[in-house]
Amino acid sequence: MSDAATHTSHAQQARRLLLRHVLKALPDVVKDIATLLDKLPEPGASSDKVQLADNLRRSWLTLALPWQRAAGQRLLEQAPSSTSGTPLGSELRLLEEEDMEIQILAGRLAQTLAAPAQDEFNDLRLRLQHLEQTHELAHNDTVQPAHITQAMLGAWSDVGLTRDDWLHCQPVVERRLAQVFNEACHLANAWLLQQGVLPHIDLRALVRRGRDGAPLPAHGAAAATGPAPTHPPPGAPAAGMSPVAAKLQDMTQRMRQLLADHIPAAARWMGAGTPTPGVAGGPGAGAPGGGGSAPSHKARADATTLMVAMPHPPTPGALRAADAGAIAPEAYQAGVAELRQQTRALKQAASSQQDKAVIEVVALIFDSILAEERLPPSIRVWFARLQMPVLRVALVDADFLGSTDHPARLLLDRMGACVMGFDASVSLEPLEAEMRRIVQVVEQYPETGRKVFEIVHKEFEAFLSQHLLERGETQKLANLAEQVELKETLTVKFTIELRKLLGQAPVAEPVRDFLFHVWTEVLAVATVRHGAQHAVSTGFRAVAGELLWMASAKPTRAERAKVIGRLPGLMARLREGMTLLGLTAALQDQHIKHVSDALVEAFMARTQPLSDQWLQDMTQRLGSLDAYLADTEVEQIKLDQYSIEMITGVDASDIVVVPDTEQKVSSALRAWAKGLERGAWFELSHNGFASLVQLSWRSPHKQLFLFAGPERRSFLLQQGRVASYLEAGLLKPCEAETLTLRATRDALNKLDANPERLLA
Q: Which residues are CB-neighbours of 39 under 8 A, at least 6 positions away?
């Protein structure tokens, strides 16, 4: 066979593998639906709902197998090629309203399938494009999520099931098909890899296009099928980066390349990468770092002139009505329409191609944000009011489109994460009030540019740290968890400092071991419970100095007499400290015996005693030990239900403690866990039960994470366990992508399809 025939054969075989895996899953989908229908209706439902549930259950008994067969037949139908010569007029027909609604449902289902499988599907798409030497897969290719979902929904209609029937069954079908499609893409990719097809995929192939839209030669077959490079290619995700951050980095790289392909001046400007400090675009703006070319300076000057023409206040009157309370849907739509008119007027007034492109990109990003159905209507108006302030910043600050950590982008993402995926029982009023305040601040100081977004982003984070702890027992649980981390941190720091203080001093090994492994923990617990300067804490630190003095040689009769007189009091204080730790009497006796044996040896020793001056300095230093603690980060924390109650003295029955295991966790996974943002919603599966939870608190050192659920059930996980749960899919973000990431991708897809609109 020729190379072309082999490539075609491989592509078709990969498609068959994918479809075969989806076909195998159809019986499971049928079972899932039957299980769901058996649970309907919910207790307390009205008689109408009971009747509807019974009708649907009976219908499914007779229509399940016909639907499965019809869906299989539709899946195996070869999708028509997008390059076929079918006349355009022959494809046009009037659709019934029900058909249109079914197509809309199929489109939404396709988005649900595509989200978790994005990485696998992108790899498969690039491999098929490489084999078939095409720029893009046809929109109706058999591997496209839309082809699969249209088969499912089309078969649903074919057998006589209705749209309302589908809405009842949609959740379980979505969940099953999303998993199956991801697995199918993975299987197809694995088979193609076995055939040697694109063992390494350069991420730049996703975005780099020539002037005519064709892939550049550097990313063609020869470059792509070669051995993997030793170093990651430009634009590849950095080690230790979370999947969301990696996707966002790739998206900004795509944005840079898109503008570079069509507007060279914008490429030079974005290549500078350093925002101008102070007033954005103001007269004192310096040259961008690393740039300094004449076109870059001109672009900033043009943008400053353009901003003078921007309306002030920038918010349309219809949207400003939200300051007085909720606005009617028609008023919101009128405000959004006015925003679009303002955008068109600004684009016509722009004198440079760069400004036109930035205006268009920002408008497309906000169009996507405002069309996001998961944003509550009462919240959407505040995102709309941020469009013009964000545009003002984007015109003079290349970082908004070209970096992943611009404060305006971070603010939009944080606001979106807190309201998308939230539980309906949680009140949005405090969040909405804070968002209203933030938007009003940004609108009042438009000339401050990037700086005002930095300020309000920090203020929003500070607000979240308080707001997320106000629900139910969350504050109490966070306080308990913080005390646990503080105790472990202090234990490590006390141990480090004691090791430094003792150094090479001739201290008996049992005494040294007791101080390092038992007494440092006593000091930490006492400090957490009572405070560093409390009499109990300072008394226990003095006991450490007393023990060191008694454990040194006592050559004179007077010193031995002092030891005999003070020994009972010392033993009582040692037991008091170990009781604070909750040690059993048997374990206390074991420690006391080891210490007593060491003291007897010191009592009988005839060696040189410790210097009085050294002992005096040591005792004084131990008395103020907390003042000398090093700033040390603790990576391992001993965490369980018992340790929480022992450290804090408080009942912790309201919290599910999930401690670390012995499993090794990579630094990349730990970095992913550390990057989780407070306020984001997750689905947490623990011991077979799934709960919707919100990350309400994380400790200052990001070692402990508290996930609060609406049903008053909270989970405390250590960093390593969070990382393991993320890797295993037991902790899944309700929103796999940030708001601006999804919006930027939507904008790029539209611009890839129609790049002329950048300058139109």
A: none
Measured in whole angstroms, the distance separating CA 232 from the mean position of its chain's CA atoms is 23
Residue 386 CA to residue 365 CA, distance in Å, equals 12
How far apart, in whole angstroms, are the C-alpha atoms of residue 477 and residue 472?
10
By CB neighbour count within 10 A (0-12 exposed, 13-18 middle, 19+ buried), where does 608 fall? exposed
- DSSP 8-state symbol, 239: T
739 Cα distance to chain centroid? 11
Phi/psi for 659 (5° steps) reads -75, 170
How many other CB atoms sit within 10 Å of the CB of residue 370?
Answer: 17
Task: Name the nearest CA neighbour of 108 among 194, 173, 14.
Answer: 173
For 540-569, write each residue's pLDDT tens digit. Answer: 888 888 888 787 777 777 877 888 888 889
pLDDT (tens digit per residue) in 696-752:
888 877 788 888 876 667 888 888 889 889 888 899 888 777 888 888 889 888 888
How big is the chain by its Cα radius of gyration, in Å?
Answer: 33
Backbone angles phi, psi at 487, to 5 degrees: -60, -45
Q: What single string gives the DSSP state of each residue in 594-635?
A: HHHHHHHHHHH--SPPPPHHHHHHHHHHHHTGGGG-------
The CA distance from 644 to 704, in Å, is 12
Type of residue found at 233: P
Phi, psi of 682, rounded to the nearest 5 degrees: -140, 160
Question: What is the torsional sign of CA 586, 587, 591, 592?
Answer: negative
Pairing mode, strands 655-658 and 714-718? parallel
235: β partners: none
Q: What is the DSSP string of 386-434?
A: THHHHHHHHTT-THHHH-S--HHHHHHHHHHHHHSS--TTS--HHHHHH
State both tokens at 747: 């904008």
Q: Closest Cα to residue 711, out of 305, 353, 423?
A: 423
Which residue is associated with the tokens 């550049």?
Answer: 216
Query: DSSP string covering 667-701, please?
Result: HHHHHHHHTPPTT-EEEEEETTEEEEEEEEEE-TT
pTM, two decimals, is 0.50
Which residue in 257, 188, 192, 193 sits closest to 219, CA to CA?
Answer: 257
